[in-house]
Amino acid sequence: MARIDGRAFDELRPIKVTENFLAHPLSSVLFEVGGTKVICALTSEDKVPGWMKAQKVPGGWLTCEYGLLPASTHDRCKREASNGKQSGRTMEIQRLIGRSLRAVVDLDRLGENTLFIDCDVIDADGGTRCASITGASIALQLGLRNVLKRPNILKENVAAISVGIVRGELVLDLNYDEDSNAEVDMNVVMTESGKLVEVQGTAEGKAFSRQQLNEMIDLAEFGLKKIFTIQKEIIEKAPKVHKVRQVEELGSLGDVFGNIKL
Questions:
Q1: Are 30 and 18 in contact (CB under 8 A)?
Q2: Residue 222 resides in a domain
Q3: Span 94-151, pLDDT tens digits
Q4: 256 in a structural domain
Q5: Residue-wise burial string across 5-42, b where 16 or more C-beta atoms lie within 10 A, e elsewhere
Q6: How many structural domains is the chain composed of?
Q7: What's 82's domain CATH number?
Q8: Calpha distance 142→132 (Å, rounded)
Q9: Full-prediction pTM beyond 0.85?
Q10: Which site among 29, 50, 52, 56 is 20 to 30 Å from 4 CA-CA?
Q11: Are 49 and 62 in contact (CB under 8 A)?
């Protein structure tokens, strides 16, 4: 059986990253994987959520918001703001992205500051949560290194990829057609050092074996190693632009997170 787009079973979709895609955030990227396109942007503020103060939790915080644009899907999806609330899917995905990034951020070094990651899907062809995590990791590192000048806050890169069983075959990086017809669909989030952050796996019909689970995680790791190489190349080649106007607007952060105690 051949894949619908002609890829080998263990082949990633083409990846393209455009840095500084937006003018106003501390950093941003347009992350494209196949037909999926996600804008990932980093902003910050010099305070932490109220629950951290109330519970006397030290350090800073990182959180995420995720959304699909109405025209990003095959059939127009209604803006969630018009419904007055977010869907369960949206809340689950943005919590996943937040957890994934917090796994590689030193929140104690961050000080009493909050980092916001916004992931907006402008074109969806499968794997939007994985693309959001991978793109957000790049935006986060670019912002911490180039603008906030605090690269040591990020301990390592993190990325995610989908794997699954489609028409009896184990496949990597599912597009929409494959995801819609998968017997098993799994998302794997991993750090660059090979540690697992989260594994989301579901059988849509026939249950899968422990051996198949191991094979899918191995295939995901194979693909993620390639993605980590791409992430590092992009970060190393990106110009170290200091956004003076944005830093001045932060005002109370002093010399940008100057209240961080290292």
A1: yes
A2: no
A3: 999 999 999 999 999 999 999 999 999 999 999 999 999 999 999 999 999 888 888 8
A4: no
A5: eebeeeebbebebebbbbeebbbbbbbbbbebbbbbbb
A6: 1
A7: 3.30.230.70
A8: 15
A9: yes
A10: 29
A11: no
